[in-house]
Design brief:
303 residues; 8 helices; 26% strand; 3 domains; single chain; globular
Length: 303
């Protein structure tokens, strides 16, 4: 179980639920497939998939959860075609123009008739709670994606005071300074990817991939007033990723060094493999997240 992206919320209060109590609460919102006329459905499933029954997987005090989302595939073009056919039939039969309100009613009718025959697609969103250090870490590439998980967890628990981290220094300013001066922290190595944006022009951005970030043309973007919003880096020879100024982490990849430290351990089952991977993942991120905050001046004190 290796996360590919990170959105890490700060817990605003101590998380005191034990695994058993959390399990009971998640069970009240267990996943149920879409009904015949449901457009979508979501609920908790075992992080171990078919290998497990428990909705909470505990490793070294970390609590892994998995949210399953299922949605019906109902192309707008198919609905539109069905509506057009019915509009044409009604107009011909009644010799009058079908108005917007009627069209909307016909659209609802067509949708309800098509839903039972529609295919479904599903996805799983993983996240874990770190009660000791106060994090909710979600495998999501954007905060919008992470909110699907965090909001459903809040609905399940009744209350979940969380917030994205805030640091003393602005990540944009810090990352821009790293590249401008070619002086990242000692444990950070610059990659070959960056996204620049111009604060003076809304929507103006330049994306660089497989580029030497110390090249004159790259430095020219900074000289002209552009800031770095995303930056590819590697950290402490243990992982590589793309840091975003909004504190999300994309394209997370752990190094061979981390894999090698697993040694010759050969789990006998998928469940044991999951447990081992989760143990290493949570350990690495328990080191990386505080360091990430420190890179940007440390976390801002909350009132």
């Amino acid at each position: 179980m290796w996360f590919k992206n990170l959105c890490a919320y700060r817990l605003q209060e101590a998380f005191t639920l034990e695994a058993e109590a959390l399990e009971e609460k998640l069970a009240t919102k267990g996943f149920e497939p879409c009904g015949r006329i449901d457009l979508n459905s979501q609920g908790w499933v075992s992080p171990l998939g078919a290998e497990g029954e428990m909705l909470v997987h505990v490793t070294n005090g970390y609590l892994m959860l998995c949210l399953k989302e299922e949605s019906k595939i109902l192309p707008a073009s198919v609905v539109r075609e069905g509506v057009q056919e019915r509009v044409a039939e009604r107009e011909e039969k009644e010799q009058r123009k079908v108005r917007k309100k009627e069209r909307d009613q016909l659209r609802d009718e067509v949708t309800l008739e098509l839903l039972p025959r529609a295919f479904t697609r599903s996805k799983h969103i993983y996240g874990y709670i770190d009660p000791k250090d106060g994090w909710l870490v979600i495998d999501a590439a954007s905060w919008k994606q992470a909110e699907a998980f965090s909001e459903f967890l809040r609905e399940t628990l009744g209350s979940l005071p969380i917030a994205p981290p805030v640091t003393v220094d602005a990540p944009q300013a810090i990352m821009t300074d790293w590249v401008a001066k070619d002086q990242p922290p000692a444990d950070v190595e610059l990659g070959e990817e960056a996204v620049f944006e111009d604060p003076r022009t809304e929507g103006c951005e330049i994306r660089c991939k497989r580029q030497d970030l110390q090249a004159d043309e790259i430095k020219g973007h900074i000289t002209s007033g552009k800031h770095i919003r995303r930056l590819g880096v590697s950290w402490d020879q243990r992982l590589s990723c793309v840091l975003d100024a909004d504190y999300s982490v994309k394209r997370l990849k752990f190094s061979d060094l981390v894999q090698e430290e697993l040694g010759d351990r050969d789990p006998e089952s998928a469940a044991e493999r999951f447990d081992l991977d989760f143990a290493i993942l949570s350990l690495e991120l328990s080191r990386f997240l505080p360091r990430l905050m420190a890179m940007f001046g440390g976390e801002e004190a909350r009132g």
